[in-house]
Description:
Layout: E1 8-11, E2 25-30, E3 39-42, H1 49-53, E4 56-58, E5 63-65
Antiparallel strand pairs: 1-2, 1-5, 2-3, 3-4
Amino acid sequence: MSYRKGDLVIVVAAGPENEGTVGKMGVVVDGGALSGGDVSVRGIDAWPVEAIKGYRSYTPNQLRKA
């Protein structure tokens, strides 16, 4: 599945760097073109990764459209 900027997504799986985000919703800020395939999502939570980087990265199979 492909994602585009502005898509509303739900996290369905997460690696250790995104632990605790499964089931949360966010907005795609980059569908993978700029980040080598990872989808950049913001609005998941405010701490700690998103507060520092401004977004969280997921592989496309870790997300689904809301």
